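Quick one - inputs below.
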Amino acid sequence: MTTDLEKQIQDAQEAVTKQGDTVRSLKASLKDGKAEKAEVDAAISKLAELKIALDEKQKEYEKTTGKVSSQSKEALRAALAGVLERRMFYIPSFKIYGSVAGFYDYGPPGCAIKQNMTQVWRNHFVLEENMLEVECPAVTPEVVLKASGHVDRFTDFMVTDAATGECFRADHLLEGHLEALLEDKKNPPSAEKAREIRELLAGVGELKQDTMAAALQQYDVRAPGTGNALSPPFPFNLMFKTSIGPKGDMVGYLRPETAQGIFVNFRDLLYYNGGKLPFAAAQIGNSYRNEISPRAGLLRVREFTQAEIEHFVNGDDKSHPKFASVADLKPLLYSRELQMGEEKKAAPMSLGEAVSRGIIANETLAYFIGRTWLFFCKVGVNPARMRFRQHLQHEMAHYATDCWDGEVETTYGWVECVGLADRSAYDLKAHTSMSKIDLTAFEKFDTPRMEEVVRVVPNNKELGAVFKKDQKAVKEALEALSEDKAMDMKAKLEAGTPVALTTCEGQSFEIKPGMVEIKKVTEKVTGKTYTPSVIEPSFGIGRIMYCMFEHCYYTREAASKDEVRAVMGFRPVVAPTKATVFPLVQKPALNETAQRISRDLTAAGLSNLIDTTGNTIGKRYARTDEIGVPFAITVDFDSIEGNGSVTLRERDSMAQVRVPQGEVASVIRALVDDRTTWPEVAAKYPAQKATGDDE
Amino acid sequence: MTTDLEKQIQDAQEAVTKQGDTVRSLKASLKDGKAEKAEVDAAISKLAELKIALDEKQKEYEKTTGKVSSQSKEALRAALAGVLERRMFYIPSFKIYGSVAGFYDYGPPGCAIKQNMTQVWRNHFVLEENMLEVECPAVTPEVVLKASGHVDRFTDFMVTDAATGECFRADHLLEGHLEALLEDKKNPPSAEKAREIRELLAGVGELKQDTMAAALQQYDVRAPGTGNALSPPFPFNLMFKTSIGPKGDMVGYLRPETAQGIFVNFRDLLYYNGGKLPFAAAQIGNSYRNEISPRAGLLRVREFTQAEIEHFVNGDDKSHPKFASVADLKPLLYSRELQMGEEKKAAPMSLGEAVSRGIIANETLAYFIGRTWLFFCKVGVNPARMRFRQHLQHEMAHYATDCWDGEVETTYGWVECVGLADRSAYDLKAHTSMSKIDLTAFEKFDTPRMEEVVRVVPNNKELGAVFKKDQKAVKEALEALSEDKAMDMKAKLEAGTPVALTTCEGQSFEIKPGMVEIKKVTEKVTGKTYTPSVIEPSFGIGRIMYCMFEHCYYTREAASKDEVRAVMGFRPVVAPTKATVFPLVQKPALNETAQRISRDLTAAGLSNLIDTTGNTIGKRYARTDEIGVPFAITVDFDSIEGNGSVTLRERDSMAQVRVPQGEVASVIRALVDDRTTWPEVAAKYPAQKATGDDE
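Output:
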C-alpha cells in the first residue's frame, strides 16, 4: 500500500516538474512569437491541476503513514533540483550529446558560488595560517601513484551482469539487497537473521574480495533490472589512465587526489620555509575518479574540485600554538565510543575536553576540526546538521593515528564532505622509499646534547670479499638498521649466531661475526633528523556546495497563495549576486539612478544585476530570492525627487529600510564582509513598510 | 670562433648557476649544523671566481662581435630562471622522480600571481561585460571532439630517428636545419638559395604531409645528436586519450581547449540570457596537449590554464555598443599588409582607424583587441613590446573571417599569448550537425515584415512510392534546401530535368518533376532564425605570466658593488605579496608594532610578510625585491616612541616616506587598487632619506 502511494507521489512530482518546464519554454516562445497565448494559458492551468494532485497524494501519504520524512525528502530534493538546474547552478555536462554520467557543468551562478567558496577557504585556511599554496598538474606519471599505493590499491569491487555485461559496484548492490530484506514486510527476517544482516550491512565497506564474493553468493544477489546472475567481484582501479609523450611508453594517470603533488614537493617546500617545521602546504584543484556507477548528483562525480592541506609536523610534538582559539568550540562529535554505544548519536563536546580526554588524538588534529567547523558555518552549512565522525579502528589504514570525517546531513543521509586524518609519516616515507630522495627534516636542539648512540661500522674488506657486487647494498642495509635491530644483531653476532639481513630491494643476506662492528658511543648531538608526520584535512568542494544548497533552500507562500516561492538563503559572502537594483517603474530618471547605484556597487566589488523588466516588485523579488540574492535595492520617486533614499530589502526577513543612496553600496559591502549585521542596519535606518507581493 | 665562445659562455653561466645552488644548500646545512663554516666560505669564493670568469667571457664576446643581443638574451633568461626556480615561482613537476617534460608546479609566489592575474582577467572581462561564466569538465567524450574536428585534425607532424626511435616534431627539425643553413658562415648559401630557404622557412607551419616529407628529403634533415636518417613525417594527435566508465568502451580525451564546453552549452546559455543576443560566455580552466617535444619552460607545456571567451553575435551586425571606449587606443598592429611589405614591422594605429579602413574586420573583434591590450597593461606586460599580428590568409581556417594574435616580445622572440578570431558560425553549425540539436537564435523584428519566401512542399505520396524507407531522409533534405538551391531545383524540374539531391547522411537521390512543389509566397514574417557567429578571444595564462616575468625582471647594483640584485618589478595588483613589515632591530616593542601593522594589512585583504631576521634593512629589502614585493614598511623607535609614523618604501624608485602607522594599510590598499599613485603618496607624506644598503 504505502510503496504504491510512494510511487504515485514520485510520478506526480515528476509530472509537475516536467509541466513546469513546458510552461517556461512556452513562455519563452511566446516572447519570440513562436507560441500562442492560449497555448500558454492552457499549459498553466494544467500545471495547477498537477500541483493539486501532487498535494493531495502527499497529504494522503502523511495521513496513512503518519510520517513526513521519506517522501518529503524526495519532494524536497526534486524541487531543489528543479531550481538548481533551471537557474543553471549546475547541469549535466554534454547535454546535447545525451550527457555522460558523473560529469557536471557549473553555470553562471554555480561558478560564482564555487569561486566565492574557494576564496573563503583560501582566506580562512591559507592566509590565516600562512600556508604554502601550490598548484600541480592533474596528469601524473605512474611512479608517483605507485609510491602512494593508488596503482595497486585504489579500487572498488565490480560485478557484471553475466548475460548483458553491465557493470555495478558490488558494495552498492549488496547494500541495496540487504536493506530491502530488512524492509520486507511480507517475509520479514527473523530477529536473529535481521541482526546478522545489520552486522553485515555495517561492514560492507570493509569486505575483502573473498568475503564480498561469499556474501553476494550467500544472499543470492542478482543484477538489477534483469535478475541475471552476477560475475564474482573483482577489483576495478578508479583512476583514469592515459599515456604521456609521443612514444606511448610512459603510463600516466589523472590524479585521484591533489595531496601527492604536495608530498613530492616536500623538499622544496621545506627549503622555501627556511627549513623550519611545522608548516602546512595547501592545494586547490581538480581530481578525477572513474567511478563505476556515479549517482546522487554532485555527491559522486568523476571530476571534482578538492582543497587539501598537508600540515607537516614533528611526530613527537603535535601540540598547536593556536589551539586555545578553538578549544571552547563545541561541534557535534561522533566518537568511536558513541558509535559503539546504545544511542548511536553524536553529541556536542568542547574540543579542549575531547583532546584532554584522549578522544581526539592531538591538538593539531583538533585544531583543524575546529577550523573546519568554523568554515562550514561561514559558508552557510547548518552547524546543527553537521558532525565529525571518528573512524572506527578497522576503517583506518594501518599507519593512520586518528581520522575524523566532517559529515553533513542531507536528504541523502549523512554525507562525508571533509576527511581529517593524522597519517603519521606514511606518505613521506613511501616517497622516500620509491624515489631514494631524502624527505626528512632536521630539528636543531637549543643546546647540543651528549647522547648515547649506536654506531654501525661495516667491515668493508670482509663485505667486499663475501658479497662482491652486492657489497654496497649490504652496507647500506646495515647502516639503515634501527638502533633496536642493530643492538639485537650485536647480541646475536657476539653469541656467534649469523643474522639474516634484508636489503631495501628485498634481497636477503647472511651477516656473520666480523663483518660489522656495532657499538654504543656517547657523542655530542646537535639535533635530530626525522620524517615529519602529516595531518591532512581534505575538502570536497562540490559536496560542500550541494549540502549548502540543501540547507539554504526553503519555500514560502506568495501573496497570491496559489504558488509557493523558492528561496535560496545563501550567506551573503557566498551568494553569486550580492544585490539587485530595481527601478520601481520604467521611467528614464529611475533607470538612470539605478544605473548609477549599480556602478557604485561594482566599484565596491559587489556583483549585481539590474532588473528593468517592469514586472511587479513582488515578482522581481521572487526571481532574485530564487537565485539567492541577499539584498535588493528599489529606486522610487522619493529617490530622485524626495530625500534621495532608496529601499533596501533583506531576503530572509523581507524587512525593508530606507537608506541614503550614497551609502547603500558601503552598507552592503559591510554586510557581505560580516562587519555589520542586518539587525544593526535595521536599527540604524528608518523602516519601510513592505509593499506588493512581498507583504 | 664566435660559436666556440658562445658555448664557453653558456658553460660558464651553467657553472655559476650550479655553484649558486651549492652555496645555498650549504648555507641551509650550516643552520642545521650539517655543514662547516669553512666549507661554506670555500664555496662562496668559488662562486665569486666563476662569476668573474663568466663576466670576462661575456666582455670578450661583446668586444669580438660588437653585439650584445644573443648572449645577453641567454644570460638574462638564465638569470631570471634562477630567480624563478630558487624562489619557487614555478619548478619542474615530479622533481624527486626526475621530472616529466612539459609539466610545471607553481610554488607559493607563482600560485598567488596566477590567482591575482586570473582575478584581474575576471574583473576586466567577465564582470565588466556581464559575461556568463561556466566551468566544464576536462574529461570529454569523443563525440564532442569529433564534432569540433579535434579527433581528426588536432595533430602535429612527427618524425622518428630510424635507428633509436626517438620522436621529434618535423617542423621544429626543419626550421632548425634551415636556420643553420642560412647562418652557415663557412658554406654560405647562394643568394638565390637563401631566398628559397627563407620562403620555405616562412611557410613551415602550413606544410602538408607530402610537402613536409619532400622538404625533409630535399634538405637531407637528420636526427639531432645521432645524425641518423628520419622516418617520413606522420600526423600525431596531441590529445591525451583515456577511457570513461568501467566497461572501457567509451573513448574520452582531456580537452585541448576550454571553448567546446561553452559551445555545447549554447542552448542553455541562450535561455539563461532570456533568449537575447549578443552575449558572451567565458571559461577559465585547464587544457591539455600531449606535445611531442615540450620546450621553452612555461611557453610550451602539456597542461596549462586557458581563459577563453565566446562572444555570440548575429553575423549580420558585428558592431559593438562600447566600441567608442577603445576606438582611440593605439596598440601596435602588425597587419597582413605590413607583414607582406618591405619593412615587416608593426606600427601603432588607432582601433577606430583600423576598423574604418577595413584592416580589422569588425568592431566587436577590434573591441576585444582593445580590451586585451588594456588587460596586458594592467598586469604588467610592456605595451611597447606587445603587438597584434593578423593571420595571413593561408594561416586561417577556411571558415574564419579574421584572426589576430596578441604577441609579446621575449628572449624567445615574439610569443603568441592570445588568439582573437572571428570564427563565423562554424562551431555551432558543427555541433548542430553532429548532435542534431538546434543551436540557433531567433531575432524578433520590431514590427512584422511582409517577405517573399521560398516554400518547399514535398509530395509525400510520390516520395513514399519511389523512395520507400528513404522517404523521410529525402523529405528532410528537400526541406533543408537553401532558398538559392531550391529555386535552382525548381527551374530544372520545370524544364523536365531530374536533379540529384544529397541527404545529410551523404546518400544521393534523384528528384523528378512532380515529387516536390517549390513556390515563392509572400507572408508575414515576425523574425529570423539564424546560427550566431562567434568571436573568440583565447588567453594562455601561463604564457602571459612568463612574458610578464621577463618584462618585470631587472637588476641593480647593490651598495657593496660586488653583487647585482635582482628585482621583480611586478605591478602591485599582481604581486604575490603586497607588503613586508620589518622591525628595524630585534626588540619586543618593535615586533609588537610590526605584528599589529601586519594584522591591519591582513584585515585590508593585503597579503604580507614579517621579516624579523635581524638582517640589515638593505638585505631585507633585497630579499623582498627579488620576490617583487612592491611596498616595505619599516618600524623604528620613532614608530613607538616618537610620532608613531613608519617608513614606507616603494620598490622601483626605492623612495621612502613617513606615514602614520594607522594610515599605512589604507594607503597601500589604494596603491594596489590603482586609486592613487606613488607620486601622489610621495607628495602627500614627508620624504625620508634612504638608509643602509638601499641608499
